[in-house]
Amino acid sequence: MPRFAANISLMYTEWPFVDRFAAAADDGFEAVECQFPYEVPAETLARRREAAGVELVLLNAPPGPAGARGIAAVPGQETAFRASLLEQALPYAQALGCPRVHVMSGFVPDGRERADVQPTLVDNLRWAADEAARAGVTLLVEPLNGRDNPGYFLNRQDHGHEIVAAIGAANVAVQFDLYHAQIVEGDLSVKLARYLDPAHPTKVGHLQVAAVPDRGEPDAGELAWGHLFALIDQLGWPGWVGAEYRPRAGTRAGLGWFQPWRRR
Ligand SMILES: O=C(O)C(=O)[C@@H](O)CO
Ligand SMILES: [Mg+2]
Protein backbone atom coordinates (compact mmCIF):
# COMPACT_ATOMS: atom_id res chain seq x y z
CA MET A 1 0.00 0.00 0.00
CA PRO A 2 1.33 3.49 -0.85
CA ARG A 3 3.33 5.13 1.95
CA PHE A 4 2.61 8.83 2.25
CA ALA A 5 4.94 11.54 3.52
CA ALA A 6 3.41 14.86 4.60
CA ASN A 7 5.01 17.88 2.96
CA ILE A 8 5.56 20.13 5.97
CA SER A 9 6.28 23.22 3.86
CA LEU A 10 2.75 23.25 2.44
CA MET A 11 0.89 21.26 5.12
CA TYR A 12 0.87 22.03 8.86
CA THR A 13 1.49 25.73 8.27
CA GLU A 14 -0.75 26.32 11.34
CA TRP A 15 2.30 25.24 13.39
CA PRO A 16 5.78 26.83 13.57
CA PHE A 17 8.11 24.92 11.24
CA VAL A 18 9.96 23.10 14.03
CA ASP A 19 6.67 21.75 15.46
CA ARG A 20 5.44 20.29 12.18
CA PHE A 21 7.34 16.98 12.55
CA ALA A 22 5.41 16.20 15.73
CA ALA A 23 2.09 17.44 14.31
CA ALA A 24 2.46 15.12 11.30
CA ALA A 25 3.48 12.20 13.52
CA ASP A 26 0.42 12.80 15.73
CA ASP A 27 -1.75 12.41 12.61
CA GLY A 28 -0.18 9.05 11.75
CA PHE A 29 2.47 10.05 9.22
CA GLU A 30 5.65 7.97 9.47
CA ALA A 31 7.54 10.34 7.19
CA VAL A 32 7.62 13.96 6.12
CA GLU A 33 9.27 15.93 3.31
CA CYS A 34 9.99 19.63 3.09
CA GLN A 35 11.02 22.25 0.57
CA PHE A 36 13.55 24.72 2.04
CA PRO A 37 14.51 24.10 5.69
CA TYR A 38 17.43 26.54 5.79
CA GLU A 39 16.02 29.17 8.16
CA VAL A 40 16.34 26.81 11.12
CA PRO A 41 19.70 25.28 12.11
CA ALA A 42 20.02 21.68 10.96
CA GLU A 43 20.80 20.44 14.48
CA THR A 44 17.54 21.92 15.82
CA LEU A 45 15.53 20.28 13.07
CA ALA A 46 17.35 16.98 13.55
CA ARG A 47 16.45 17.00 17.25
CA ARG A 48 12.80 17.79 16.55
CA ARG A 49 12.55 15.18 13.81
CA GLU A 50 14.04 12.51 16.01
CA ALA A 51 11.85 13.41 18.98
CA ALA A 52 8.77 13.14 16.74
CA GLY A 53 9.83 9.72 15.45
CA VAL A 54 9.34 10.52 11.75
CA GLU A 55 11.69 10.14 8.81
CA LEU A 56 12.56 13.09 6.58
CA VAL A 57 12.53 11.59 3.08
CA LEU A 58 13.11 14.65 0.85
CA LEU A 59 14.37 18.22 1.02
CA ASN A 60 15.20 20.78 -1.66
CA ALA A 61 18.60 22.30 -2.34
CA PRO A 62 18.57 26.11 -1.81
CA PRO A 63 16.59 27.94 -4.51
CA GLY A 64 19.25 30.60 -5.24
CA PRO A 65 18.76 34.39 -5.21
CA ALA A 66 15.36 35.96 -4.43
CA GLY A 67 12.78 34.96 -7.02
CA ALA A 68 14.88 32.11 -8.41
CA ARG A 69 13.59 28.53 -8.58
CA GLY A 70 17.02 26.93 -8.52
CA ILE A 71 20.22 27.69 -10.36
CA ALA A 72 21.47 24.31 -11.56
CA ALA A 73 20.66 25.09 -15.22
CA VAL A 74 21.73 28.74 -15.09
CA PRO A 75 25.04 29.45 -16.85
CA GLY A 76 27.34 31.61 -14.72
CA GLN A 77 25.92 30.29 -11.41
CA GLU A 78 28.12 27.18 -11.22
CA THR A 79 30.19 28.39 -8.26
CA ALA A 80 27.10 29.41 -6.29
CA PHE A 81 25.42 26.11 -7.14
CA ARG A 82 28.37 24.07 -5.90
CA ALA A 83 28.66 26.10 -2.71
CA SER A 84 24.93 25.71 -1.99
CA LEU A 85 25.20 21.97 -2.34
CA LEU A 86 28.35 21.54 -0.25
CA GLU A 87 27.54 24.12 2.43
CA GLN A 88 23.79 23.71 2.80
CA ALA A 89 21.93 20.92 1.00
CA LEU A 90 24.23 17.99 1.76
CA PRO A 91 25.02 19.01 5.37
CA TYR A 92 21.27 19.41 6.08
CA ALA A 93 20.54 16.05 4.43
CA GLN A 94 23.22 14.35 6.49
CA ALA A 95 22.22 15.98 9.77
CA LEU A 96 18.59 15.04 9.19
CA GLY A 97 19.23 11.55 7.80
CA CYS A 98 17.50 12.58 4.58
CA PRO A 99 18.30 10.33 1.60
CA ARG A 100 16.96 12.56 -1.22
CA VAL A 101 17.67 16.11 -2.34
CA HIS A 102 15.62 17.80 -5.06
CA VAL A 103 17.86 20.07 -7.14
CA MET A 104 15.83 22.74 -8.90
CA SER A 105 17.07 23.68 -12.36
CA GLY A 106 15.75 27.25 -12.51
CA PHE A 107 14.37 29.46 -15.26
CA VAL A 108 15.77 29.55 -18.77
CA PRO A 109 17.61 32.92 -18.87
CA ASP A 110 16.17 35.58 -21.19
CA GLY A 111 17.43 35.22 -24.73
CA ARG A 112 18.60 31.62 -24.21
CA GLU A 113 17.06 28.35 -25.39
CA ARG A 114 16.65 25.19 -23.29
CA ALA A 115 19.18 23.39 -25.50
CA ASP A 116 21.78 26.12 -24.76
CA VAL A 117 21.58 25.69 -20.99
CA GLN A 118 21.06 21.92 -20.75
CA PRO A 119 24.84 21.23 -20.69
CA THR A 120 25.13 23.48 -17.62
CA LEU A 121 22.54 21.38 -15.78
CA VAL A 122 24.12 18.09 -16.85
CA ASP A 123 27.65 19.22 -15.85
CA ASN A 124 26.47 20.60 -12.51
CA LEU A 125 24.55 17.45 -11.68
CA ARG A 126 27.40 15.14 -12.75
CA TRP A 127 29.67 16.95 -10.33
CA ALA A 128 26.95 17.01 -7.65
CA ALA A 129 26.19 13.30 -8.05
CA ASP A 130 29.73 12.38 -6.96
CA GLU A 131 29.50 14.62 -3.91
CA ALA A 132 26.02 13.32 -3.05
CA ALA A 133 27.11 9.68 -3.44
CA ARG A 134 29.76 10.24 -0.76
CA ALA A 135 26.95 11.47 1.52
CA GLY A 136 24.62 8.56 0.62
CA VAL A 137 22.16 10.94 -1.05
CA THR A 138 20.16 10.60 -4.28
CA LEU A 139 19.62 13.79 -6.28
CA LEU A 140 16.30 14.41 -8.00
CA VAL A 141 15.18 16.62 -10.88
CA GLU A 142 11.51 17.50 -11.01
CA PRO A 143 9.51 18.63 -14.06
CA LEU A 144 7.28 21.56 -12.97
CA ASN A 145 4.30 22.86 -14.88
CA GLY A 146 4.83 26.07 -16.84
CA ARG A 147 1.50 27.60 -15.80
CA ASP A 148 2.64 27.97 -12.17
CA ASN A 149 6.31 28.35 -13.16
CA PRO A 150 6.53 30.20 -16.50
CA GLY A 151 9.96 29.81 -18.08
CA TYR A 152 11.07 26.94 -15.82
CA PHE A 153 13.70 24.79 -17.55
CA LEU A 154 12.19 21.37 -16.88
CA ASN A 155 8.50 20.69 -17.64
CA ARG A 156 8.12 17.19 -19.04
CA GLN A 157 8.72 13.70 -17.65
CA ASP A 158 10.52 12.51 -20.79
CA HIS A 159 12.87 15.50 -20.57
CA GLY A 160 13.60 14.68 -16.91
CA HIS A 161 14.52 11.13 -17.90
CA GLU A 162 16.65 12.44 -20.79
CA ILE A 163 18.61 14.60 -18.33
CA VAL A 164 19.06 11.67 -15.92
CA ALA A 165 20.31 9.47 -18.78
CA ALA A 166 22.78 12.16 -19.88
CA ILE A 167 24.18 12.43 -16.34
CA GLY A 168 24.56 8.66 -16.15
CA ALA A 169 24.90 8.40 -12.35
CA ALA A 170 23.09 5.76 -10.29
CA ASN A 171 22.14 8.34 -7.64
CA VAL A 172 20.28 10.78 -9.91
CA ALA A 173 16.57 10.19 -10.63
CA VAL A 174 13.33 11.96 -11.52
CA GLN A 175 10.84 13.34 -8.97
CA PHE A 176 7.48 12.54 -10.58
CA ASP A 177 4.88 14.98 -9.25
CA LEU A 178 1.46 13.92 -10.56
CA TYR A 179 0.09 17.46 -10.07
CA HIS A 180 2.58 19.00 -12.50
CA ALA A 181 2.50 16.02 -14.88
CA GLN A 182 -1.29 16.14 -15.21
CA ILE A 183 -1.20 19.87 -16.05
CA VAL A 184 1.59 19.51 -18.61
CA GLU A 185 0.96 16.21 -20.30
CA GLY A 186 -1.67 13.93 -18.67
CA ASP A 187 -1.82 10.22 -19.52
CA LEU A 188 -0.69 9.54 -15.95
CA SER A 189 -1.54 5.82 -15.83
CA VAL A 190 0.61 5.07 -18.86
CA LYS A 191 3.45 7.24 -17.58
CA LEU A 192 3.38 5.68 -14.10
CA ALA A 193 3.51 2.21 -15.65
CA ARG A 194 6.37 3.24 -17.95
CA TYR A 195 8.57 5.09 -15.51
CA LEU A 196 7.97 2.97 -12.38
CA ASP A 197 8.83 -0.20 -14.31
CA PRO A 198 12.04 -1.50 -12.65
CA ALA A 199 13.29 -2.35 -16.17
CA HIS A 200 13.12 1.31 -17.27
CA PRO A 201 16.71 2.48 -17.78
CA THR A 202 16.28 5.72 -15.84
CA LYS A 203 14.58 5.81 -12.48
CA VAL A 204 11.92 7.69 -10.55
CA GLY A 205 13.21 8.48 -7.05
CA HIS A 206 10.11 10.02 -5.49
CA LEU A 207 6.41 10.59 -6.23
CA GLN A 208 4.27 13.55 -5.18
CA VAL A 209 0.52 14.21 -5.37
CA ALA A 210 -1.99 17.05 -5.15
CA ALA A 211 -5.40 17.68 -6.69
CA VAL A 212 -5.65 19.34 -10.09
CA PRO A 213 -6.36 22.14 -10.67
CA ASP A 214 -6.46 23.58 -7.12
CA ARG A 215 -3.39 21.84 -5.61
CA GLY A 216 -5.52 20.83 -2.63
CA GLU A 217 -5.94 17.44 -0.95
CA PRO A 218 -5.71 14.39 -3.26
CA ASP A 219 -9.42 13.64 -2.93
CA ALA A 220 -11.05 15.88 -5.56
CA GLY A 221 -10.54 17.56 -8.90
CA GLU A 222 -9.93 16.01 -12.29
CA LEU A 223 -7.84 13.00 -11.20
CA ALA A 224 -9.30 9.60 -10.18
CA TRP A 225 -7.40 9.11 -6.92
CA GLY A 226 -8.73 5.64 -6.12
CA HIS A 227 -7.48 4.42 -9.48
CA LEU A 228 -4.09 6.17 -9.23
CA PHE A 229 -3.31 4.99 -5.68
CA ALA A 230 -4.33 1.43 -6.59
CA LEU A 231 -2.10 1.60 -9.67
CA ILE A 232 0.90 2.88 -7.68
CA ASP A 233 0.33 -0.06 -5.34
CA GLN A 234 -0.09 -2.60 -8.17
CA LEU A 235 3.11 -1.37 -9.78
CA GLY A 236 4.89 -2.23 -6.53
CA TRP A 237 6.26 1.29 -5.95
CA PRO A 238 8.70 0.81 -3.09
CA GLY A 239 9.25 4.49 -2.32
CA TRP A 240 7.36 7.34 -0.71
CA VAL A 241 4.51 9.43 -2.07
CA GLY A 242 4.81 13.03 -0.96
CA ALA A 243 1.52 14.75 -0.08
CA GLU A 244 2.58 18.11 -1.47
CA TYR A 245 -0.64 20.07 -1.37
CA ARG A 246 -2.13 23.23 0.14
CA PRO A 247 -4.91 22.21 2.53
CA ARG A 248 -8.20 23.80 1.47
CA ALA A 249 -9.57 24.38 4.97
CA GLY A 250 -6.88 23.51 7.51
CA THR A 251 -4.46 20.59 7.56
CA ARG A 252 -6.30 18.37 10.06
CA ALA A 253 -9.72 19.12 8.60
CA GLY A 254 -8.47 17.84 5.24
CA LEU A 255 -6.92 14.52 6.28
CA GLY A 256 -9.93 12.34 5.41
CA TRP A 257 -8.17 11.13 2.25
CA PHE A 258 -5.28 9.77 4.38
CA GLN A 259 -7.29 7.62 6.81
CA PRO A 260 -7.37 4.44 4.65
CA TRP A 261 -3.58 4.68 4.24
CA ARG A 262 -2.57 5.27 7.87
CA ARG A 263 -0.13 2.66 9.06
CA ARG A 264 0.05 3.85 12.68
O1 LIG B 1 6.65 22.66 -6.55
C1 LIG B 1 6.87 21.45 -6.42
O2 LIG B 1 6.14 20.61 -6.92
C2 LIG B 1 7.98 20.95 -5.61
O3 LIG B 1 8.13 19.75 -5.49
C3 LIG B 1 8.86 21.88 -4.93
O4 LIG B 1 9.88 21.20 -4.29
C4 LIG B 1 9.45 22.94 -5.75
O5 LIG B 1 9.63 24.00 -4.86
MG1 LIG C 1 6.57 18.66 -6.36
Automatic annotation (TrEMBL):
Q: Which domain of life is it from?
A: Bacteria
Recorded hits in SUPFAM superfamilies, A to Z, give: Xylose isomerase-like
Q: Where is the active site?
A: 142, 244
- Output the Gene Ontology terms for molecular function: hydroxypyruvate isomerase activity
* Keyword Isomerase appears in the UniProt entry: yes
Q: Name the keywords, alphabetized.
A: Isomerase, Pyruvate
Q: Which GO terms describe its biological process?
A: glyoxylate metabolic process
Q: Where is the Xylose isomerase-like TIM barrel domain?
A: 21-259
The answer to keyword Isomerase applying to this record is yes
The family this protein is said to belong to: Belongs to the hyi family.
Q: This chain belongs to which protein, by name?
A: Hydroxypyruvate isomerase
Native source organism of the sequence:
Rubrivivax albus
